[in-house]
Write a structure and sequence with these properties.
Hypothetical Protein Tm841, Chain: A,domain 3, alpha/beta, Rossmann fold, four-stranded parallel beta sheet, 10 helices, globular, 2 domains
Length: about 280
């Protein structure tokens, strides 16, 4: 049994080999995307291209499903100290499932479990995982890590802009008002994660102006960049990502900019040309 482990859901866009420290257990619990009669499990083996092709061809109702409490609890005995990182509890039932799975261990002194509602998604979860690894490697005890990681979580920010909002709106993740905005094809909303929810913070005319506005928001988000990592998760948006990175670098000297592809769940909601920026 390991002393520490980190469990994260697949909304993090991470793969199962992400954590390199072999002394720290690491697992990803997948969400599921349903398109017609086919279920796509959002694990390392998901074919995102196939999933998106199926999504565009299918004209019926589609949905996503969070993991069961048992999907989490079966791993809780693998380590003495477990940290779980989930997508915002206001966007998914995954956080509640992880908490329910932990209830059976409430009175078991052999296992300590802390479930972290990231209040965001995608790269924000990755940043929390990175910080957990750093805190564990520093030698801190469980309760001290809890204090530090909750503070770190509250400082994270996420911005995004999408070409299509169809699935976010159809599955109740965003207001239908945004649908009217987005479908004009002229106004491009710039959005932000605010207290676990998705908020439109600027309605911009044109894609290029949307990227400029997003870069401005990012430049004002933190006071210093040299010790900060910025993560851009993109869904089939190479050119758009390149354009945004160029704009960000004009005013922001981040320690590192990581560019990642979205996996199943985030691709389902972001769709092609979607960009999610976490810092």
């Amino acid at each position: 049994m390991k002393k520490f482990q980190i469990i994260v859901d697949s909304a993090s866009d991470l793969d199962s080999k992400y954590v390199k420290n072999k002394e720290i257990g690491f697992r990803i619990v997948p969400l599921t995307i349903t398109i017609g009669d086919k279920n796509y499990v959002d694990d390392d083996n998901i074919n995102v291209d196939e999933m998106l092709e199926s999504l565009h061809k299918y004209k019926g109702k589609t949905s996503t499903a969070c993991p069961s409490p048992e999907a989490f609890s079966k791993y809780y005995t693998d380590a003495e100290n477990t940290f779980v990182v989930t997508i915002s509890s206001k966007l998914s039932g995954t956080y509640n499932a992880a908490c329910l799975g932990a209830k059976e261990f409430e009175n078991d002194s052999n296992f300590k479990i802390h479930v972290i509602d990231s209040k965001l998604v995608s790269g924000a979860e990755e940043l929390i995982v990175d910080k957990l690894v750093e805190l564990i490697e520093s030698g801190l005890e469980f309760n001290d890590i809890v204090t530090e990681i909750d503070k770190f979580r509250d400082e994270r920010q996420l911005f995004f802009t999408l070409a299509k909002f169809d699935n976010l709106i159809a599955n109740g993740r965003m207001s239908k008002i945004v649908a009217l905005i987005a479908k004009t094809l002229i106004i491009r909303p710039v959005c932000k994660g605010v207290e676990g929810e998705i908020k439109v913070i600027e309605k911009v005319i044109g894609v290029n102006n949307a990227f400029k506005k997003m870069a401005t928001f990012i430049s004002k988000a933190v006071q210093t960049f040299k010790d900060k990592v910025l993560i851009i998760n993109k869904c089939k948006a190479d050119n758009e990502c390149e354009q945004l990175v160029k704009l960000i670098k004009e005013n922001c000297d981040f320690k590192e900019i990581r560019i990642k592809e979205t996996k199943g769940l985030c691709s389902f909601y972001a769709l092609e040309k979607g960009l999610i920026v976490s810092l």
